[in-house]
Amino acid sequence: MQTNTTAAPKDDTFIQGVKDCIPTLLGYLSIGFAAGVVEKTAGLSLAEIALLSLLLYAGSAQFIFAGMITASYSVTAMIFTIFFVNLRHILLSAALSPYFRHLSPMKNIGIGSLLTDETFGVALTRAAGKERISERWMHGLNVTAYLNWFVANMAGAYFGQWITNPERYGLDFALPAMFIGLLVLQMASRGQIMKDVVVAISAIFIIVGMSMISSGSLGVIVATVLASTIGLVMDKWK
């Protein structure tokens, strides 16, 4: 008599998600360390930095928060700025949502709440040619990145007490440098340089134009949506 098993494939396990996150850990460590240093020099305590990394969990938003704290911005201004900067996560979650339609809303919230730019990139590569992504694999990916980010932030916060001028070491440029690197690698792997260049130039012009009539944060959101739409139209037209 044969027995049917429903064991998950080896590459769909939590442990495999952890392994697939490993190539991104160096980036998390460097950016998280830099964020911790900047937050510490902004006057935040270790407990405040710990809560910030666990609850906000967004590199760009944490750098912005530290800068606005230093510049004595109002709480309202900080809330709205961080809100607009993090709106991109709606787009990231929407792009991955078709692969998790088989899960309940609460499980989708659990996955989406720990989604980052880096884990999104890994998951999108994983999704190629598939209709679904394993929930266990995604949790392994997300949880590993989350814990690594927390450790990196706390390490930076601890050693940051001896670094009074992070700009001197270029730590304030760590986040933009990481995103530039990710963008270049993704463009090189796609093999669609012309379309990517057109989208990038469009985004730059939109951001510059929006910054003249509104805030820079809003310009980033508008540029993301419009430039993505331009890329989609070019792809469909081709």
TrEMBL record:
One annotated Gene Ontology cellular component of this protein: plasma membrane
The organism's place on the tree of life at top rank: Bacteria
Subcellular location: Cell membrane
Matches recorded under InterPro entries: Brnchd-chn_aa_trnsp_permease
One Pfam match: AzlC
Keywords: Cell membrane, Membrane, Transmembrane, Transmembrane helix, Transport
Segments passing through the bilayer: 140-163, 169-185, 197-230
GO biological process, one term: L-valine transmembrane transport
Membrane topology term: Multi-pass membrane protein
Signal peptide feature range: none
Family: Belongs to the AzlC family.
PANTHER family: INNER MEMBRANE PROTEIN YGAZ
Protein name as it appears in the record: Branched-chain amino acid ABC transporter permease
